[in-house]
Predict the 3D structure of the following.
Amino acid sequence: MKTVLIALNSKYIHTALGIRSISVYCREKGFEVDFAEKTIQTPILKVLSDVMEEEPDVVGIDVHIWNKDYAFSLANLIRKVRPQTIVVLGGPEVSFSANEAFCECGAADYIVEGEGEEAFASFLAGFTITEDECVKHVARRSKQASEGRNLKPAIVNDISCLPFPYPDLDRVKEEQKIVYYECTRGCPFNCSYCLSGIGHIVRKKPLAKVFAELSLLIEAGIPLVKFVDRTYNLDEAYFLPIMEFLAERGKNSVFHFEIKADLLSPAVLEFLKTVPKGRFQFEIGVQTTNQATCEAIGRHDDWRLLEKNVHALLSFGNINLHLDLIAGLPYEELDSFKKSFNDVYSLNPHMLQLGFLKVLNGSRIYGQRDDYGIVHMDEAPYEVLYTKNMSYKEIFFLKKLEDLFDHTYNSGKFKHALACLVRLVGRGSAFLFYEHLTCWWPSRGLFDRDHNQRNIYLYLKEYAAENLSAEFEEVVEALRFDIFLYNPGWRPESFEWHADAFKALLLDFWRNDELVRKYVPEYNFATWRKIRKYYSIERFSRHPVTGVAYEFLALTNYAEDEPSYIELEKEDFYANKV
């Protein structure tokens, strides 16, 4: 019996950990199971053609919030083209709502509820087309099987039995795909909007197995490995040796973790200070700083400790931090959300993701939605429309603000200009500034458009011209500095540039190797073309952080992974002669 499992990823660079793990596990049990990774951008008839070429007896489709409609349409096409093929659905979108999924997808014969390795292997082992009963945690399309089912999802109690899910590691590396990896499953917390903590049981792979599998990823040179552990840093005695292993041997890979920042001990922070720059990325779910909201959703973060630890991590300068907020939670009014936004923004993370509550079937908040007056989309992605605390108009406004925020702050290319605008327009309140900018943006017809990042510099200059008078030049100088720092070779004519005015002095400076090495120790003159490509010097009239009037010369090295600048001593530059 031939089985094909299909993953429908949201992007080509993604890999499907669940489908891969089930496929490899079942093959080790002696079943003929293959997997195919497609994307929701692939024409559905192309996916259908590829699947039909395999002439499968069983097709399994992984259903997620981002691919539900596509997955159900594909299942229905398979039923039309090859009626004898058994269609099995799995994944978080159907695991907690089998009856509803059978109603929505008329082609589905079975649904795997929960973690699929053992359940699907048992299904294949006992499978016959005329079977009336189904194995545990696999729902069958029949009234008798679907009524009164135990909705507790399947879990694999001993995840040490699961094989390495990347048998095609060379191809994954060649295609520069992101590798998703887990060393634990489950979550001890019970956030009401999340499905991960429903079982409360955290299971761990043995460290020896983790080290062996991570070694394979490191040796293959995988560029980005994302740990999908829901809260990676739960047990210091377990997670710290893994991090130490990766810090020492990680080579050219980057490792992404979802962590709870208030759980980081002083000893862990001391270690993290020593990690090679760029080796780790941390995603930290703050969600809200409103204590009434935290209690309602079952989160118990120590905000002060989280704040302290995030400041420490940022001060190390070696780990990229991505912090999350969720709008539309219980008891979170717009004013309360503004405070949460300002609290997290003040930490200055590398990225701040503004998300919106998704009311997932099977989550605790799904059953509480009427209590909190939460009205949400009935179809995926089930996003909140309004609550008793936040109106639709307010939610919609935050959606516009989110789009603008992603184009500006989260791009990382407007650091000094945005800090200047928050200080001058928001008077210290980041939300007040972004609120004001979000109200101005439609006046230029700038929403619902793709934006060239360079144009945004010009829009911000225009915004400052209309909304600031005496302080306008301060914003222009900050914008000019960001252009200088983050845009090699681009010098828009609408800004004033000074390098041409001291071209002769530039030539003298770069000819003096000893002087240049005072600022760039690794400098070695090769050609003028290389200097023009990698280095730039410009004069500025205000400090890029404080905005205080202060003339200085900045030198940046575009060959570095992260743009930075060095302030030249004016005496060295202006008085220097060969």
